């Protein structure tokens, strides 16, 4: 069985590179799509806008979603995913630099499957992302695709 795609929603170029490097180290980098704002994430997930020709039947393993995004913030992306029958069961991991309690609570109340604070230390960041990739690609059994 082929593992699904990882969608990384990240507007910080350095964090994007760190995530991709960490996933590549555990042989998951060939299954990652990157979008840089919340609207792009929604367009990708619902095959709209610039992604209208994307094959929406391609299974997704997980969305790694930053909170502080341009155009549409991460909590709004999460809300839209959870209220749409096509994506309401899609695993979403909040991957953020925020350590605000209100962001943690709002993420879980909004239906996030996990909340992970981006470690400041490069090695710890890489290990955290690699663990996330392995868990959501190899260990977790998703309901997605619909």
Give an account of the 3D structure:
The chain is of the alpha/beta class and 146 residues long. It has one domain: Rossmann fold, CATH 3.40.50.2300. It is 40% helix and 16% strand. The chain contains five helices and five strands. A five-stranded parallel sheet has the order 2-1-3-4-5, with helices on both faces. It is globular, with a radius of gyration of 14 Å. The relative contact order is 0.20.
User: Could you give a short account of the major beta sheet?
Assistant: 5 strands, parallel
Helix content: 25-40%
Please mark out the parts with pLDDT under 50 across 5 or more consecutive residues, or reply none. Answer: none
What's the level 1 CATH class?
A: Alpha Beta
| Number of DSSP E strands | 5
Tell me the number of structural domains. Answer: 1
The CATH H-level superfamily is Response regulator
Distance between the termini: 16 Å
What is the H/E string? EHEHEHEHEH
Percentage of residues in strands: 15-25%
| Cα Rg | 14 Å
Corresponding CATH architecture: 3-Layer(aba) Sandwich
Strand order in space, largest sheet? 2-1-3-4-5
Structural class: alpha/beta
Secondary-structure map with pairings?
Elements: E1 5-9, H1 13-25, E2 32-35, H2 38-46, E3 60-65, H3 74-82, E4 92-96, H4 101-109, E5 114-117, H5 122-139
Main attributes of the structure:
single chain, alpha/beta, globular, Rossmann fold, 146 residues, 5-stranded parallel β-sheet, 5 helices, 40% helix
